[in-house]
Amino acid sequence: MGMTTPPRTLAEALRARDDESLAGLLRARPDLLSPVPNDITQLATRAGTRASVVRALEHLDRFALQTAEALAVAPDPAPYETLLALLTGDGQDDGTARDDAGTAIRSAAPGALATLREQALVWGEDDRLRLVRTARELLAPSPQHPSPTGLGPTVAEATAGMSPGRLQEILTAAGLPATHDPVSAVASLSALFTDRTRMGELLDTAPVEALSVLDRLVWGPPYGEVTPNPTPPVKWLRDRGLLLPVSTRTVVLPREAALHLRAGRAHRVPEPLPPAVVAAATRDPQAVDSAAAGQAFLAVSTVEELLTSWNGGGPPILRAGGLSVRELKRTAAALDVSEPIATFWLELAYAAGLLASDGEADERYAPTPAYDDWTELPVQDRWVHLATTWLAATRTAGLVGGQDAKGRALSALGPDLDRSAAPEVRHRVLALLASLDPGTAPDPETLLARLRWERPLRGASTSAGNTTDLRSRIALWTLNESELLGITGRGALSSQSRALLDAGPAKAAALLAPLIPEPLDHVLLQADLTAVAPGPLERPLADTLSVLADIESKGGATVYRFTPGSVRRALDAGQSAADLHAFLAAHSRTPVPQPLSYLIDDVARRHGHLRIGAASAYVRCDDEAVLNEILADRRSATLRLRRLAPTALAAQIDPASLLEGLREMGYAPAAESAEGDVLITRAGTRRTPLRTPPAPVPEGPPVPDGTLLGAAVRAIRAGDTAATVVHRETDGTAAATAGSLPRTTSAETLATVQAAAMTGSAVWIGYVNADGAASQRVIAPVRVEGGFVTAYDHTADEVRTYPLHRITGVAELADDATT
């Protein structure tokens, strides 16, 4: 769709685009589709709203943003040559060679301008470029919001409201001819500041101190404060209009003068090219893959160890949500990691749907049923599940320990940890790592500089040295977390992670599988009541051993220690002494040490000698001497025991507390049911109800797919046709204007649509739906019967049926109108 005349508005410029270009706009700015605009005019209006423009500016790279900023301080409209001059300068600066920079800018400027045009931030032909008004207001200078370029207002803007007499004084001091016309005076002063020769002659007469004042203002901010009696250098500048008053105490360097001092450049350092990501180290790719695979196995093992320790029920949940600081410290100590790393594993397990609240009155965390399914997967598939969850998660573990907007502390697993930018930053960091040669670890500072160039407005600051903005912090957390998770090895992206990003989970799992060590079916028992697992263990062996012994140390080999408490735990789970002896003999490559056999027999002999049930609670034992010993022990005072019979004691605390208290005193009691049977406590029985993982919080509307874009473009085109179509004047009524609803009587409406159905022509109708919303449509009636008209609706691009009583009126289209 071409245009014979230049567009006068953004709507006309959008109307002149082809369908592919409109789809590109909607793809780049998906917020314009919520809901689908009725026509091109509404699309243009929505594209100029402040919220939409801000969102679009935030997604520009640094040079595209600099191009928009240059247009914001250029005349409106501005030819392309003026824009290019603001980006490259006039070549008459301090003599520093800028040819290479100018060449790069001239090469990159068309692409940056094309990006601004595609996103409807700039419209018009090259000889009349216009920045949309909202973007100009956001980027143009003002005392409250200085321009990002550091330029101040023009001479015309700064002198608005200045008295003619004051203007005459400035012209006289600057050596310009006097004029009583304020417009001519402003034009004369502007011409002086934009004339390099005359401006140079004027500055040659300036005091050195005055030039120093200009040096401080030239690159911004252009505003300065003055006293009622300014110094001679400031007075010299003010008298000649090089400093113009904004208020009684504030002056500003006008834009034309600043551009002369800048040699015509809008920016001190234009950045047409993205900074390169520099390699910090180059390593053997195979070593990187091996290191990443080892860390991936450790990540899976750590998550499994964490949730196994919470099998019987995890820590309680704070009233405000999340984990308390004390419980986080306890979890970190149990995993033998720092608290930030423990937070990362907790948040990862929660995001993966392996951990959730149990929903009980005394709410606690516990593994979910999905955790049991996860543990049955091969190691490589478990890792892929964790890695893909991490890539898409918006919950940001690095925020824990900080404060929210209201000054409240952010806790692990608590609310307010979602940051919608996190997935995009993670993917972008990994994409930059993937762009390097295999085995190359990047320099973090150059990586952050590249991210800031790509999204300069998304952080708190655009300065190259500031790393405190959110995107930079997420990027640094991404580097650390990807190393913990095994996405990277020794700082470089692994082959399996490249496959995860490019080919998908199945390919990544296939590449990781050969690098994962095979699980072992044996341990090495030692005489000091320890067992050494020289590698990962098969699941049944690992599960049983984790109940029978406590993990003492982890690493390449895991050391388990047998204690009376761990043996009692196995007996509580339903094992007998004979079962434990047989298990150890079957899975040990070394003989079972005699001390370990004695330990098992000794604990088993005493296990269950005392029986505890619910009275509130009671203790019974066939040996009266044991009960006498307990009553005589001072440590039993807190248990509040009293004798009911020679072989039974009653307590005023619950059975669980009584069990724990007697165990702390060195006994090995067993719980029993109301029928007198020993209760078996099996590990891993506590699970939450079925839970769905927390959904990531999207960053704005999702990018629409091709089908939705095509349908949206057709609907907008059809709506635009309906809104702008030319229609005939109906009998007895005035011609309706575009955008208004036609009005005809019921008889006229019926007759017109019947005639259109017979001739196969299209008509223009006004329609009010059941909700009372009015719209105008172009329809081609097919059938009229029973008070309804069935027609092809050009606006909706489908066949629809309309009640005749809801049609406000109908008008024929002009002979030259098209639908």
Topology, please?
Layout: H1 10-15, H2 19-28, H3 40-47, H4 50-58, H5 62-73, H6 80-88, H7 99-118, E1 122-123, E2 130-131, H8 133-139, H9 155-158, H10 164-173, H11 182-194, H12 196-204, H13 208-217, E3 223-225, H14 232-239, E4 244-245, E5 250-252, H15 255-261, E6 279-282, H16 285-309, H17 325-335, H18 339-351, E7 355-357, E8 365-367, H19 369-375, H20 379-392, H21 422-435, E9 440-442, H22 444-454, H23 470-485, E10 488-489, E11 492-493, H24 495-502, H25 505-512, E12 524-526, E13 530-533, H26 539-548, E14 550-553, E15 558-561, H27 564-572, H28 577-587, H29 594-606, E16 611-613, E17 617-620, H30 624-632, E18 641-645, E19 648-651, H31 655-664, E20 670-671, H32 706-724, H33 746-759, E21 763-768, E22 774-785, E23 788-793, E24 798-803, E25 807-812
Parallel strand pairs: 16-20
Antiparallel strand pairs: 1-2, 3-5, 4-5, 6-9, 7-8, 10-11, 12-13, 13-15, 14-15, 16-17, 17-19, 18-19, 21-22, 21-25, 22-23, 23-24
Helix pairs in contact: 2-32, 5-7, 5-8, 10-11, 13-14, 16-18, 16-20, 17-18, 20-25, 21-23, 22-23, 24-25, 27-29
Task: Offer a concise description of the structure.
This protein has 819 residues and is of the alpha+beta class. Helices cover 44% and strands 12% of the residues.
